[in-house]
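Q: For a teaching session next week I want to show students how multiple molecules come together into a single three-dimensional assembly. I've collected the sequence lines for a complex. Could you give me the predicted structure tokens for the whole thing so I can convert them for display?
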Amino acid sequence: MSIKYFSLLFSVIGIACLYFLSTLSQPALIELNDLPKYEDKNVIVEGIVTEYRSTNYGSQIITIESENTSSTVFLEGESDIEYGDKIQVTGKVQKYNNDWEVVVDNVAFLRVIQKWQNISMPLWQLAISPTKYEGLNVNVTGYVDTIFDGYFYLSDSEGSYSIIVFYNPSKYKVQSGQEVNVAAKFSFDKEKFRYNLDATDEMYGIHKATGG
Amino acid sequence: MLDLLLIILFCVLGVITGIMTGLLPGLHVNNVALILLSLSGVIVGAFSFLFQYGITEQFILILVCIYIISTAISNAFHSSIPTTFLGAPEENTALSVLPAHSLLLEGKGYEAVALAALGSYGAIIFCFLLLYPLRFIIGGPLFFYSTLREIMLWVLIAISLLMIMTEKGRVDVFGKSGKTPSIVGILFAAFLFFLSGLFGLAISEVPVNSPVGFSSPVLFPALAGLFGTPTLLTSLIAKPNIPKQKIKQPKFNRKAKKATVLSVVAGSLAGIFVSIIPGVTSATGTILAMNTRAESDKRQVIITLSAVSTACAFFVVAVLFIILRARSGATLAVADLVTVEEWASLAIPTTLIYLLIAIILSGTLSYFSVLKIGKTFAKHFANVPYALLIKFTISMIVILVLLFTGILGLLVLIIATLIGLIPIHWGVRRSHCMGVLLIPIILYFI
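A: Of course. Below is the structure for the complete assembly, covering every listed component.
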């Protein structure tokens, strides 16, 4: 076969091979601080949603955090994520305004691995690194301590940590010494200079701890 | 004083590197820029002894940029030598192979080189004169680029169509009579354009990785394969019979002088135009220039085409500072090495001034160097160990591809080479392979 037809035939075969190769290559699951190494490549990243907002063009800008690094995820479309959800996204790493971000073409490439309500943690975990969870929805386990009108103190079993929990007494009945799961927004009260859990909103709640 | 000496030194080094990349088709400036970029830390380290003389790290990085830009300019000048003597063009000189090579066959190889040098130097002067006016046209207050960007999709499609529809190659597999070969030629050009585009889309997802941890640009093996290695392989196989060369300076009568100025202007404008648009290189500029100039005299063709590639090498630098977009491998490296400040006011940014000095200086040096080397080539053409040089270059490309992109990169190089061989052996223009960039970019704009 002359070079004329050889080059034609094998370049078509070659391109087909490349397509095959590119479908074979699954994007790698990487840490957020490794993003710069993967410019223009497809990757999978995971993290806790610390912020999200929608743009006017029907896309969503999500900030996720993992291992003390946070990154932006640009989602073409809108998902129903909430603060504190652990999500996994598959997208292309790009530099935008000097920051690394993961651009996700389609809502299908965003997966909520764990809803924030299902990520329950003991009170001490919240106490040792509060900044990590500030502003997020959390699900904390602890014991009801002193009860006041509209709020109570939640402590751990040893009584080493305690935090104020605002709640709706007409909706939830609590008893002192009871072990509970508090689903609430964890925030810092600048005036009182303390952290608190706010469970007054409809979406939050207080439930008897099951097991353990 | 020391800084000026350093600028001159790096300029000269750049010109020397440009001679090498220019003489060895396939070793492209972009590859050199890429290597320098990944070595910039080492270079700054090597020159850190200059810190005690008041030279800052920033300035050393500017010197690296000066080196890269001088290489690019020198490359644009010197690539006329292999184009003429070896018939082995780089993509942007592909169109000038025929006129230059036919002069060589008449024993006027040196004249062809001298004409190309004239076109290149003319382009540098013309671009320099147009620098300020174009700054106001491309940037504020006229913002030609913003207007252009709005219609970029159509501009890119129009350029692609122009490239395909002006294909003059004849493909005679479906009959040799009448207009059939020409029509099939155009269809074949379209096929090649889309084939390259498919290739471009395929490689964007191929996970190439450097075994030694360099950044892995998948475009490097792709472009080296499409435009570099096929020519090298072809010129290894083809050994034409070249007559003894006469050394004769080109002479112009009054009419030819006027035509020469027109050729420089048309070539430069085409070069400037493509330097603004993404995804098109001076190869496309040569097609634009040839279509607007419509000049069949082969001497004028040579001048026009060398003006295109040099004007493009010049203006991508200016464009980087006017619209802050890197349009070539060399400027991409510059943008990565130093902070590019926008040329928004009347005053030219300092970095750009340094680079302009480099362009003028390396242009002037290259002009004389290319004449000298062209003369040597013409005199000793028979004694040049050409086959050895080509084998060396091919090995270099393979090693660099392996180093930067690993085994998968080598696969990309091989497939790209196969695609790059198609236009050479079917007799259509190689610039259709630019579909590799154009189709992904067009899809991006859609």
